Amino acid sequence: MKKPSFQRRNGSKKKISKHQPNLITRKPSIRLFCSSNISKMRPDVLAKILGNANVWNGSKVFVAECKDDLLTSAIAQRVHSNGSVVQIYEQKLPHIMYTRWLDFKKPQLDVLKYFPMKFLYKLSDDIPTETNIITVNENDEKILDDEQTELGKRKREEAEEDFVKHTSLCNEMKRNDFDSLVISANYDPLPVLDLLWNCLRCSGTVVIQSEFLAAIIACANFVNNKGCSEMSVVDQWFREIQVLPGRTHPDMRMQTGGGFILTCTKLAEGVYEHKSNVPVAPDNGKPDLEEMSAASPAVTS
User: Fold this and answer.
1) How far is the C-alpha of 193 from the C-alpha of 45, rounded, in Å?
2) Of 75, 198, 281, 286, which residue is most buried, by most CB within 10 angstroms?
3) Residue 219 CA neighbour count, 13 Å, CB half
4) Is 210 exposed, middle or buried (0-12, 13-18, 19+ CB in 10 A)?
5) How far apart are CA 123 and CA 196, in angstroms?
């Protein structure tokens, strides 16, 4: 017996509501990226770095990361349109994936600046020669030229990045008035820390996140010799808990370790004004106590 049309319609509606997937459209945000499987950084690690980095509206921050630009986007949101965020990238192109997804406005995009890691040596006074920077064997170049892609076509030779377009940003970095330095990378962060240490202002904040304890210890010894305060090394540990009636226990498959985080504040000898690296000269009306003791005659009994 054939069913009436209204019964067939009701039956099809029930099947569709039961088996059809529901799609929810949400506005992109930093919290949404951290909770998804797209990001390579856990929410607790990102929150710890942002809390220790001392980033506010209008601050100037160095960011060096190799995973993605999630940390750069989160800092750019806090800085807004008044400060400066310089991303130090080690590849041929900077990381801009999350920046595009978050759909920043033009004033916020103007805050983001990108500087190649291979040009960091130009910030120091002792600039090495070109022969000391890169040494390439001619045989290796021929091997790279002979390599072919899967389609049988030769790889396109990419032009080397020119330093001329980064000159203005390099001069800005040489002012040594940046407020924070944030490094989150799998490589050794000590060379980057060494080259960018002088670009930080006095009382600037340094935050380094790494999965390797040996790299954190090397950076801790470096900042301790240079002069720092409030230095701390934290092992970011996180445990996911399954909460169900009668079945509450830690999750079986989870990543408990989030790496080690080094935090410190840069110090320098002398008295400095806010956002200045030049020590304040002593007032002429108030001479130094050591000069007064040296000028006064010795008292004998």
Assistant:
1) 20
2) 75
3) 34
4) buried
5) 8
Asked whether the beta carbons of 64 and 56 are under 8 A apart, the reply is no
What is the spatial distance between Cα 273 and Cα 286, in angstroms, rounded to a whole number? Answer: 18
- What is the Cα–Cα distance from 292 to 294, expressed in whole angstroms? 5
Strands 228-237 and 257-266: antiparallel
End-to-end CA, the chain:
129
Three-class DSSP category at 181: strand
Query: E strands of 92-227, at which residues?
Result: 112-116, 178-184, 200-210
Q: How far apart are CA 229 and CA 151, in angstroms?
A: 57
Element (H, E) at 217: helix 213-226
The per-residue b/e assignment along 249-269, b for 16 or more CB within 10 angstroms, e otherwise, is: eeeeeeeeebbbbbbbbbeee
Compute how many other C-beta atoms are within 10 angstroms of the C-beta atom of residue 41. Answer: 20
Residue with tokens 């010799």: 225
The phi and psi torsions of 183 (rounded to 5 degrees) equal -125, 125
pLDDT along the chain (301 residues), means of 10: 67 75 81 77 85 88 85 88 87 82 85 87 62 40 42 44 79 86 89 90 90 90 89 81 83 72 84 62 48 47 40
- The tokens for 60 are 């100037």
Task: Write down the pTM of the prediction.
Answer: 0.70
